[in-house]
Amino acid sequence: SAIYELSCEAYKHLGKTSNYYWIDPDGSGTLGPLKVYCNMTEDKVWTTVYHDLQMQTSVGGSSVEKLPVLQLNYSATMDQISAITSSAEYCEQFISYSCKMSRLLNTPEGNPYTWWVGKANEKHYYWGGSGPGIQKCACGIERNCTDPKYYCNCDADYKQWRKDSGMLTYKEHLPVSQVVVGDVDRPGSEAKVSVGPVRCQGDRNYWNAASFVTSSSYLHFSTFQGETSADISFYFKTSASDGVFLENLGNTDFIKLELKSASEVSFSFDVGNGPVEIVVRSPNPLNDDQWHRVNAERNVKQASLQVDQLPLEVRKAPSEGHTRLELYSQLYVGAAGGQRGFLGCIRSLRMNGVTLDLEERAKVTPGVKPGCSGHCTSYGMYCANGGKCVEKYNGYSCDCSKTAYDGPFCIKDVGAFFEEGMWLRYNFRSLGTSAKDLVSRTLLSSADPEITAPDLSLNKEELSFSFSTTKFPCVLLYVSSYTPDFMAVLVNPTGNLQIRYNLGGTKEPYNIDIDHRNMANGQPHTVNVTRNGRDIVLQLDHYPPTTYSLPATSDIQFNSPKALFLGKVIEIGKIDQDIYKYNTPGFTGCLSRVQFNQIAPLKAALRPTNASSHVHIQGELVESNCGASPLTIPPMSAATDPWHLDSASADFPYNGQAIGDGVNRNSAIIGGVIAVVIFTILCTLVFLIRYMFRHKGTYHTNEAKGAESAESADAAIMNNDPNFTETIDESKKEWLI
């Protein structure tokens, strides 16, 4: 039975992320498995097969008798690539011809100088961006060629470099196996050819499905030709407890697959030695409306049946007797010969490597509907971190909009690097319409949307993020309010984490100090804080969660939350003394996947969403996963690591630079890095020594000055500039020390 999946689409539905995978497009057929790159994007899955032709391969100075032929050797056979292209919904391959006095297709009337050879060794005289039977390049279709008399830029025969390039998308002609270049034999003629990898998207076979609505409905196909070997695989989904999946009869011979009970699948056949039945019993019910996979095989030596990942049931064939399965009737999928048929959905039904087109047949058959619904019941679990599964006609996708993550499964951290002095503010109230306020309020809590924003108060918060830094003290995150209430996550002067709550009712803010753990060690750390009324649960990294309680006198309402700050607090009114101190010079480091209730401020800043109007940034926010918790960044596999040179594999990078100079390049880069590191350390030392001497006697007085003048400075700045937070310049920020 197949140990590899049939396609990249199948790997995506096992929750796999982008990487190189072995796929076996015809199951256990003759083609054998091949290695491809599967790129799982948000809504599509791309399968990429590489070849060994360098990008910008130069051609020139050859005799007329022998045209230069560029041969492309792929990391797969032509038949294997055909299996991928034929089941794909769309395929493309980039092709480009750069020319200097070298004509390409000899338009408008002449015989082409250059052509490419595709599937089945057919020659093709069209170019990227154009289509079959049209002897034109992309510029000829778009009517923007350098010289309008010609249909290709290169056909104008200029002495300057020109280029014709585009995608070949007629998948029946792909892949490109050769490019034959003609017009490079004159003095001064030169050309460069580039061909990209074959990229295909979608898998029509994987989602080819039919829903059986009544127990008497069936689809019929021509007789199954499986005399000496049969390999049948499909997925099913049902809430019924029994029914026939498929059957094909002969005079006495037959082959049949059925759901015998809610937990049993049976594979039975007779090749003339009497009926044989193999049954797989599942410990869990199979009629749970989830997808289950069935794989049945029979050859002259043995027969086997597998359901999902349950153990394979095998039955050896008798050493004597008949071995040929002789069938005459049509193949029935669903109810056959008056038996109770299968109720539910069957998809991706393959018989000896060929996918039966259930969808087309179902369109013209009463009692059977094309396609299936309800993929989320089986695949919704792959949408992680609060991502919502969205049903699609052929499959599902994950909606990550209410999370701090993105990517196809909502597991890619969205994070950023903060330079010193940079900060981000997320206003819970939008400055715009009340409709936007409503959105923000529902995200902030599940409270009654009728309450106006300043009156909103929270009984519970959920906060999670990860960060890395080497500088302390600093403010990581601060939530301000229209009242004295606030919440802050800080790294204190000893490099330890502190959570600070001020909800009123206590003289001093309530602090949770996590001593004995240096959080400013440059490593990514994850922080999860959940408050429900008086109870606060804190989880740091992978340590067990610890529970804390607000003092008995403390209020348990976080009144009128106003804004969330990352990196620094720039807020009107009186601010906690310590936080003033920690505010300068500000946070330097990385923050990632910040989420406060349902608000993801960093994602709103880095991805245009309807919440982006709530965000204000001071400085330049650079996206980076440097603060991502280590769990989400797997080490580079040998296949994707650009420095891992594996001569045995035929995975050629798209940009196809020569790999020969890899070693020299490595040592040059390593040398360069070491030089930069040493230089940086020296600079830092010089800076630190100067800084220490400069600040030796002044630290305490600065602090006091800041405290005395805070109120008046506030007033002064606000009077000058109503929009002050947007325009504080460096000199005005002094009062924040």
TrEMBL record:
Bilayer disposition of the protein: Single-pass type I membrane protein
SUPFAM superfamilies referenced in this protein's UniProt entry, alphabetically: Concanavalin A-like lectins/glucanases (SSF49899), Fibrinogen C-terminal domain-like (SSF56496)
Domain Laminin G: 208-372, 440-626
Keyword terms, alphabetized: Cell adhesion, Disulfide bond, EGF-like domain, Glycoprotein, Membrane, Repeat, Signal, Transmembrane, Transmembrane helix
Family annotation (InterPro entries): ConA-like_dom_sf, EGF, Fibrinogen-like_C, Fibrinogen_a/b/g_C_dom, Laminin_G, Neurexin-like, Neurexin-related_CASP
GO CC annotations, alphabetized: membrane
Domain (EGF-like) ranges: 373-411
Coiled coil: none
Entry's localization field: Membrane
Pfam family, one: Laminin_G_2
Transmembrane regions: 668-689
Superkingdom, natural source: Eukaryota
A GO BP entry: cell adhesion
Residue ranges annotated for the Fibrinogen C-terminal domain, each copy included: 1-51
Disulfide bonds: 345-372
PANTHER family: CONTACTIN-ASSOCIATED PROTEIN-LIKE 2, PIKACHURIN-LIKE PROTEIN
Family of this protein: Belongs to the neurexin family.
Protein's UniProt name: CNTP2 protein
Organism: Lanius ludovicianus
